[in-house]
Amino acid sequence: MTTSITNRFVLLIATAAVAPLLVYGIVSVTSLRTGTQTSVIDGNLRVADQIAERIRLYIDNNVRVLRSVGAQLSGTQLQDWQRTRILRDHVLDFPEFRELTVFGPDRAVRATSRFGPPRVQAPDPPTVAANGVSIAPMRMDDDLLPSTTIGIRLGEDGWVVGELSLEELWRVVDGIRVGESGYAMIVGDDGQLIADGHPDEKRLVASLDQQQISPELGYATTLRGNTVPPVPFEYDGAGGRKMLAVAARVARPDWIVVVRQPTSEAYSTAHKFERQLVIAICLALLGTIVLGYLWGRSFIQRIFALTRVTRSLAEGKMESRVAPTGHDEIRELGDAFNSMADKLVELQENIRKQERQVMFGRIAAGLVHDLSHPIQNIGNSCKLILKMWDDMEYRDTFRRMVEREMQVVKRVLEDLQNIAKPIPLERFPIELNRTVGDAIESMQGLAETAGITLKVELAPEPAYIEGDLFALGRVYRNLVVNAIQATAPGGLVVAAVESQDERVQVRVYDTGCGIPPDRLQAIFEDFVTTKRRGLGLGLAISRKIVEQLGGRISVASEVGKGTTFVLDFPRTSARPVAQAAG
Description:
about 575 residues; alpha+beta; Beta-Lactamase; Heat Shock Protein 90; six-stranded antiparallel β-sheet; five-stranded antiparallel β-sheet
């Protein structure tokens, strides 16, 4: 009976191992397929981008040639025969241009490199770009070779127009190979095929019905005028062969580069590894079942021990270790597991050290930033007092300066002390209208110095909460000072008290610069600040005070319009001692 139960248990363990391995196999095959497809698409996109960049450079170089020709002819008193000579020389120097013609403001021919009437015309105004360049759609010449027309405005002197051969683009496209069967093609801004690297598809360049013949042209047409990046396109090519196409836009002119490749070739490596992985997973499944049945009973308890230690580690008991026995793979697994646990402990300790170092670095940087200025002021004044001790007026100035700077130092140190431990608060009933009004009145001088209008809006009836008068005054001061510093002269800062049933709210809002959304959620964290100076502890301490008093603090902001901080407290029915006695 015991043997039967043990065998069934071993078979159960062996069978249970099949499901995780199957899941792993499915995930691995899917990840391999997705990763390979992404890699292939990215590689083809890079090829398309390179071709698009070469086309842009090719067009830009020839535009610069035309601009050079225009610079030689514009604003000069050359005769027509001299202009003709210059144009013919440039055609000889730059064989990409089959013809160069200069048109006057009235679109009349001034000079041409041809010995007969020019074949090109002055550009129509709608085809001219903002930079004064007009690029006509591709056309086939009498020799069935592609060409286009580029026009450059010569200010008020007319146009210089060149007929540009696109044979160089054919050579560029013919030199592109993606694998053994992948080719590139260029589609013009009018949807016409300009060049195709596939030997059997070059005839489409001169075809009158390209859209019906080539699905790649339909793909390129859907991309035209679309601002989103081109997405890969899979389709059935000639002979029902599945194809993958990717595209890239040419900056100038508005052409599309399409690179296509048979999916069987593009994903061949992925399919090969996928088959190997499936075979490996099947063999592993078979081996797991066989080994689980034959030898599982001998080490099942050791696996349970390993499981127990794994759970202990997951629960945070980092001192747990496996007591390895035997001399087989389970022993090696136990040793490896113990080594991993040791590494985890070491890594955890290193992370703690790094976190402490980062925290100390931020504190040190903040202290240096906030204390260097007052300490430097005190030091400089000490040097001067030695020379000006007899000057009673300066001695009084020195005393006020030292007291002021020491207050700054004391405030920084108090912030550090308060952030490290809870701030001791004494809770007693206070009236918010009065506390907010007193706080705003005490800061009117600061607001006037900054050129800010500081207003207070009180609730129509008394609003009582359980709070600490000094601590709340500190919160008000932090919020109002931050609002004044964030508001330009002439702006407005308002502190308002509002009663809402069982809650009382204090709103501090301004018309300042606002806080970016990506920084809004972190402003209450320690050592986070949007100002150039300060440790970034004011709002963190304010949140601690409000939460200790049972309240909540929230913020809403819009860049360029202002920020609103809301303090929300539960209302209390208790009254101050003096008022209750009266």
